Amino acid sequence: MNGAVAVTGAAALSPLLAACGSGSSNAKGGANSTSGLAAVLPDYQVSKTVKPDIPSVSGAAGAFTDPGFLTYPANPVATVSGTPGKGGSYTAVTPLWGTLPSPGNSYYQAMNKALGATITMKPANGNDYATNIPTMTASKKLPDWIQLPSWWNANFNVGGLAGTQLADLTPYLAGDKIKRYPNLAAIPTGAWQAGAWRDKLYGIPAFASGMALAGAVFFRADVLEAKRITADQVRSADDLWNLGKELTDAKRGVWAFDDIWTYLYPAWGLPSKFTVKDGKLVHKYEMPEFLEALDWHYKLAKSGYVHPDSLAGNTNDGTTRFYAGKVLIQGGGTGAWNLVDYQSGTAANKNKMTTPQPAPKRTSTGSLAVRRECGECFLSCGKQVR
Q1: CB 197 within 8 A of CB 158
Q2: Which of 38, 43, 298, 383 has the CA that lies 20 to 30 A from 188?
Q3: Could you tell me which residues come within 8 angstroms of residue 352 by beta carbon, excluding any fewer than 6 positions away?
Q4: What are the CA-CA distances from residue 46 to residues 13, 55, 186, 315 (Å)?
């Protein structure tokens, strides 16, 4: 293989927005044309191997809800018969925010046996990924497979890599050609847009969701509960502000907040990047709500409730401060709420508990309400509890 296959980390947003040009068949730069993109995107075939308890529902402009499963299948279903691989050795590089596994471990061995091929996995530190990958591309030493999270497209210069160091998958996956690979065909069509450049397909989506979340704001439930503070008491921006005042004790080296901006701005009704208003594409920077959100967070940064190291830009150590109890509320991707988080946190404090913080939503009156789901799990799911 002359080029690496880019596996993007982007979700299919709702509603789906393509990077389209004027509609002509000739795309310039890294943009896709309307007709060209329509021709290159794989056809979608709903997977019927496992029936969801709550089926996906399609909406306008390509929007869809995720299928829901209330229990794990008692008898897992095999979606591929036989051994898919035909030998050969390959390398793969992916980002990992956690402890790097040892090379050639038993899991990797079992995976290679099931695949019928040898894939040497090389997970890399996610915190340094955005700076290390450009070094690899500059020396033209990419692996056979590489994961390129789309939020770092600018760092990686993916548009420049497309067609030079990334393999063109269009002849193999475009349109109905995807039917040879049922599991890939079960990925919604819109998700493939993240890997399309200049009317050709260079990437396979890592996942697709009709409800992509920027992340969540997590809090130290053990500390707050000891103070008899529960999540449902935080029902407005003022409540969150007052909580910062109550929890911060700089003399003891404890601050209420670490970085939360990236994960709290949806509370002002802001999209990740773009939204559609009155049939027009609008960037979040053009919305008055963005200025409101910035103003609130600017005041928070000046309040003394945010850890000084976080304000200085040292956000990579935010999780360490969180585990150590130096900060009690921080933002993070939903993937951070996992076994590694539990193990690392309890290693620092056996009573440590991490729970997503309420996600207040700005109402038409300018006040804030809390969207709540499943007790203390507040992820702006769309169900509003009064």
Answers
A1: yes
A2: 383
A3: 220, 222, 323, 345, 346
A4: 18, 11, 5, 40
Task: Classify strands 255-257 and 5-8 as parallel, antiparallel or unpaired.
Answer: unpaired
- How far does CA 327 lie from the centroid of its chain? 23
Give the residue with greater pLDDT, 351 vs 18: 351
Closest-CA residue to 85 (of 62, 112, 121, 116): 116
Amino acid at 378: F
Cα 100 to Cα 110: distance, rounded to the nearest angstrom: 18
pLDDT, tens digit, for every residue of 165-217? 999 999 999 999 999 999 999 998 888 988 999 899 999 998 777 766 667 88
Euclidean distance between CA atoms 326 and 311, whole angstroms: 14
Please say whether the beta carbons of 223 and 203 come within 8 A. no
| Cβ contacts of 52 within 8 Å, gap of 6 or more | 67, 68, 69
Distance CA 193, CA 274 (A): 15
CA distance 349 to 331: 20
- Give the separation between CA 109 and CA 129, rounded to whole angstroms: 25
Q: Give the predicted TM-score (pTM) of the model.
A: 0.64
* pLDDT tens profile 314-351: 877 888 888 888 999 988 877 666 655 666 555 556 66
Angle at 51 between CA 46 and CA 55, to 5 degrees: 70
Q: How far apart are CA 26 and CA 36, in angstroms?
A: 8
Contact call for residues 41 and 19 (beta carbons, < 8 A): no
Task: State both tokens at 294.
Answer: 């910035």
- Strands 89-96 and 118-125, how do they pair? parallel
CA dist 234 and 254 (Å) reads: 20
